[in-house]
Amino acid sequence: MSVVRWTHKACTIALVAVALALAGCGSRQGASTGTVAPAAKDVSITACGRDAALGTGSARGVIRNTSGHRADYVVHIDFLDPAGAVVDSALHADSGLDAGAQATFTATGVGSYPDRVTCKITKVDRTLGS
User: Fold this and answer.
1) What is the C-alpha separation between 9 and 11, in angstroms, rounded?
2) 115 — phi, psi (to 5°)?
3) pLDDT tier at 130 (50, 70, 90 boundaries)?
4) What's the pLDDT score for residue 50?
């Protein structure tokens, strides 16, 4: 009869394997399947600027659901000053976007700043439905 000794490395590998197996359960994420394009490719910014009256950043864009499944999206946008520093951020959420459908959105920052801004999509979360 052999005795199995669990080393720190073996325990770590086992825990990582369990975590990865559990991560595959539940709702499907756009980037987790090989047949679905990354969610970031579904979102584009069509206009970016600073609201003159409020002084806040404003981004308009389009989400095109290319996943082949109904999906929910959360788009993270940073507003950058002329030097490239982040001066504000905004989120936009869209739920239940049918496969092949598109939706337009406007995301507005909350801070006020004097300079012009550029917009950068920093992250797109997509949860696929059944």
Assistant:
1) 5
2) -90, 165
3) low
4) 87
